[in-house]
Structures are given as structure tokens and as C-alpha cells.
Amino acid sequence: MAEHYDAACLCGAIHLRAEGSPLRVGICHCKDCRRHHGALFYAAAIFPASAVRVSGAPRHYNGRHFCPTCGSSVFAESGEEIEIHLGSMASSDGLRPEYELWCTSREDWLPPFSGTTCYPKDRPDP
Fold first, then answer.
1. Domains and CATH numbers, the chain
2. Which H or E element spans position 39?
3. What integer pLDDT is reported at residue 27 of this predicted model?
4. Among 3, 64, 110, 125, which residue carries the largest CB count within 10 Å?
5. Residue 21, Cβ density class (10 Å: 0-12 exposed, 13-18 middle, ≥19 buried)
6. Contact at 8 Å (CB) between 96 and 115?
């Protein structure tokens, strides 16, 4: 059986299934992500868009998709990639963030996360 990851909003109206392993897993501290999630940072697993199936009818704002019923932020879409929020996944076991973005906005009282590379802003292009 192929590896897959399932995710959903709080009320269950939006479901996602990602097939295979993510391209990468990261954390973002930027002001936009903080406001969107109502949290100091958020973590996501990034998959090729072709590997993700979305069911339900999410709404979106600037590529950030959420449930219109319960308001849960579930995923973001950027180019040919979909970022599935780890908090929306049925299980995120084994998905360890490899990097942190926008560390210039990172709260100084947060403890360091082991094994992550901290970028001042966005990741450099590969």
C-alpha cells in the first residue's frame, strides 16, 4: 500500500489525501502566517499538487484555503505545491520540520527546534 496522509477541517466538510512522501516539511514565522493561523508559527508538509486530492468546497484568500463552515485553515496552494498544515492531519507522526522561514519574526523566547535550519526570510531557491 502506498504511503499517504489524510487531513480535514474541524467539522469534516473538507478532506485531503496526499499520496507519497512530502517534498519537505517546514515551519513559518512570517506575519501573514501568524495572522492567518492565529498562532506564533505554523508547520506544514509540502507535496506536489498532483499528489493531493481535495474533497469538499474550501474557500480561499491569497492561496490560503479554509473551511467556510468551521473556519479551519487546512492547506495553502503555491504554484505546483500544496502545503498541508500539520495540525489538520489525522497523523503527522514522522513529519519533522527541516527548516524555519522568516526567523527575523521568530519570538525570541521560543526554544530552538532541533534539526532545523533557520532562514531569515524565505528559503533560497534550490
1. 4-118 (3.90.1590.10)
2. none
3. 97
4. 64
5. middle
6. yes
